[in-house]
Amino acid sequence: MNQFTRLAIEAGPLAAFFIANSQAGIMTGTAVFMVAISIAVAVSWHLERRVPIMPVVGAGFVLLFGGLTLWLQDDLFIKIKPTLVNLLFATVLFVAHLMRRNVLKRLLGTVLAMTDEGWRTLGIRWAWFFLLLAVINEIVWRSMSTDAWVNFKVFGIMPLTLLFSAFQAPLIMRHQVPEGPAESGPAA
Fold it and tell me: Alpha carbon of 120 to those of 14, 86, 108, 130: distances in Å?
């Protein structure tokens, strides 16, 4: 799948949420978000014959907390969803680190080739970043209007994540393992 298609599949549901919220409010926005993320997961599966774990977990949380939001007519649930998702990711990464497991390597090892030390450092950095996102989400939804929170969710979290990812490039470059055929030892 090319990068443009992947971006459309990943960012499309969020854009649909933003537009629907701005036109008809948080309940309609939430319903549209739930439909859009379900379509995105289905399209991803159709195109790749697999669905990456992170989008599936995200979709599960959107459907669960979006469903609670609509059923109980309380936007609290959709607002705390990013906090809980980010806490889940942070917890998984911190626990995996303590257990000397490398979750990120399992998720991204086919895309990046790095040393184990690089994977460990990257995992810890992402764990702290997810924790930071959870704290920021709590501050924003508790101190701002629903529309301001939606704007932050769309125009704050995504750029912060892209910026954080870009700042990881030096670490990735420093710990990158060159690709190519394995050396078989001295020639006879």
Answer: 30, 19, 13, 15
Token pair of 143 as six digits: 């101190």
> Residue 94 has which token pair?
């911190």
- Report whether 43 contacts 176 (CB < 8 A): no
pLDDT per position as a tens digit, 47-94: 888 877 778 888 999 999 999 999 999 999 999 999 999 999 999 999
Beta bridge partners of 114: 176
Among 98, 140, 157, 154, residue whose Cα is nearest residue 123: 98
Q: For residue 113, which phi and psi values (nearest 5 degrees)?
A: -115, 110
Q: What digits encode the pLDDT tens for the residues 89-124?
A: 999 999 999 999 988 888 877 778 899 999 999 999
3-state helix, strand, coil in the chain (%, to 5): 80, 0, 20
In sequence order, what E strands does 74-157 have? Answer: none
Q: What is the pTM of this model?
A: 0.84
